[in-house]
Amino acid sequence: MGKGEFTALNGIELLFTTGEFAGLIGPSGSGKTTLLNIIGSLDTPTSGDAVVLGKSISSLSAKEAARLRKENLGFIFQSYNLLAVHTVYENVEFPLLLLNYSSSERRKMVMDALEWVGLTDKVRSKPPQLSGGECQRVAIARAIVKKPSLVLADEPTANLDAANSHNILQTMVTLNKELKTTFLFATHDDKVISYLRRKIFLLDGTVDREEIKSN
Amino acid sequence: MGAGLRTWLNVIVLSFSFVIIIFMKGVMIGWDHQAKTDMTNWEIGGGQYWYKDYDPLDPFSLNESHAPVPAEVAEEIARGDMEPFLIVPGTIYPQGRLQSIVIKGINPGQSLFLLPSHKLDTITEAIPAIIGSSMAKNIKAKVGDRITIRWRDVNGTFDAGEILITEIFSTGVPAVESGQIYIPLKKLQQMMIMPGEATILTFRDSEINRPEIDNWTLRTKGDLTASVDKMIKTKTAGQTILYGILLLLAMLAIFDTQVLSIFRRQKEIGTYIALGYTRQQVVGLFTVEGTMHAILAALLSAAYGLPFLVWMAKTGWTMPIDTSEFGIAIAQTLYPLYSAGLVFSTVLIVTTVTAIVSYWPSRRIAKMNPTDALRGKLQ
Question: Which CATH number fits the domain that encloses residue A72?
Answer without folding.
Answer: 3.40.50.300
